[in-house]
Amino acid sequence: MRGLRGAAALLGLFLGGSGPVLADVPVDSLKAAVLYNFALFVYWPARPAGEFDLCLYGTGPFKAADALAGRMVGRAKLRVRRPGKPEELRGCQMLYLDGADPA
């Protein structure tokens, strides 16, 4: 149901209706829906068959992204990682940078 509301909110944005459609959808849920759909519709030349790592780097909580864990991206199961240091970013297929951390 959350995915449907997120898709409806995106459709509302593209069709110009930004009022009541977006009122029910938290910003984090909308961000998570965009990230997941991006992963689904991009051609990944070296997509692994086992796990697809979405890394969230920064100081923000972004708890809505945790709901994506276990969903499928092609034949790979999505795993949400939260690396604490830049050295831990190796192996990420997608990276979300939280703008709250200036470094």
Overview of the molecule:
With 103 residues, the chain is of the alpha/beta class. It is built from three helices and four strands. The chain has helices at 2-15, 20-23, 27-41, and strands spanning 51-57, 72-73, 76-81, 94-97. A four-stranded mixed β-sheet has the order 2-3-1-4, covered by helices on one side. A hairpin with a 2-residue loop joins strand 2 and strand 3. The radius of gyration is 15 Å and the shape is globular. The model is unreliable at 6-18 (pLDDT under 50).
Could you provide a short overview of the structure?
By secondary structure, this protein is α/β, with parallel strands linked by helices. The protein has 3 helices and 4 strands.
What would the keywords be for this entry?
103 residues, 3 helices, alpha/beta, 4-stranded mixed sheet
Outline the fold blueprint.
Elements: H1 2-15, H2 20-23, H3 27-41, E1 51-57, E2 72-73, E3 76-81, E4 94-97
Parallel strand pairs: 1-3, 1-4
Antiparallel strand pairs: 2-3
Helix pairs in contact: 1-3
Main-sheet strand order equals 2-3-1-4
Counted by DSSP, the helix tally is 3
Binned strand content: 15-25%
**N to C succession of SSEs:** HHHEEEE
Structural class computed from helices and strand pairing: alpha/beta
Instruction: Report how far the terminal alpha carbons are from each other.
Output: 36 Å
Radius of gyration: 15 Å
